[in-house]
Amino acid sequence: MFEQNSDQLAALQILSDELGFFEAIDAQHRAFHVTAGDTLLVTFESGAKLWGPDVATALDASLLMIHADGPTWFRSPDLFDFIDDLTDEGFFDDFDTVLFAGAGMGAYGAGAFCVAAPGAEVLLMQPIATLERAKVPWEVRNRKAWSLRWGPRYSYAPRSVQAANHVTVISDPTETLDAMHASLFQDDHTTHLRIPHAGPRVLTTLHGMNLLTPLCEAAMAGALTRPKFARLWRARRDYRPYIKGLLKKLIKADRRALVRHLSRHTLARKSVTGPAQELDLVSEALDKAKTVRAQSL
Fold first, then answer.
1. For 6-237, which CATH class?
2. Domain segments of the chain: what residues?
3. pTM for the whole thing?
4. 228 three-state secondary structure
C-alpha cells in the first residue's frame, strides 16, 4: 500500500482485465474494476500512491478505482459519460453494498459522483466541496483548478451526497480551510468525525495508523459511529509522526506545560518507538521548549 510505483498501476490493469474491466476514459483518467464480492468499494485516487486496491483485498470486496493522472479534480466530460453509462447499465445495482470513498481531491470525486449510485455509503476524508469561486470564494489553494468548469454535472459534492444512505466526513478542525469545506456537508444523514492536529495530509496520517481498512469496513456496514471512531482514533497515541507534529504545534504556541505533559506521556508509552528514540523525541521537544522560553525572557 502507498508504494510510489507505476508498476502497481500496471499490475492492477492486468488484474482488472482478467477479473473485471479496465477502461482508458480519456488522456488523464482510467477506470479499474476488479470483481471479488457482493460489496463494492469505489475510490477516487491520483498519482502512484494507491490505497483502494489493498483495502478492497483486505475486505474481500470488489473494487472500482477511478484514477486521475494529476490534479484534474475529475472534471472530465468523458468521465461524466462513463459514470452515466455505468448507472444506465445497472452496474451499481449488482452489489449489495456500495461505498464511495476518497481523500482530498479524491473525496471531492467520491462525493460528487456518489449520486450515480443512490443509497450508497460515502466516506469522505478531508473533503473539498468544490473549487467553484462563487461557492468558496475564501479558498486560496489549488489556483490552477479555479479555471476548470465546475458545473453543472457532478459538480457540488455537498449536493450530490444528498442521494447517499449515509455520509461520514473526517476532517481536522485545526486546518481552517479544510474545516470550512467540511462544514458545507450538513445534511441530517451526515456524521462528522474530527481528527484534531492530524495535519494537511489526512490520508497519509490515517494510512500510517493502519486505519483505512477498518474505517472502510465500518462505513460499509453503516457502523462508523462516533464511539467506534473514537476507539480507532486512539491509534494516534502510538503514531510517532502525529506526536511529533503535535509537539511542534505546542512548542510554536509556547505551551510549555502541555509540552512537558505530552513528552512524559510519550515516554510512558513504550509502543511508540524504541526507548532510545523515545528519549530523543522527548529531549528534542524539551530542548526546543527551553529555547522558546529563553527567547521570550
1. alpha beta
2. 6-237, 239-296
3. 0.88
4. helix
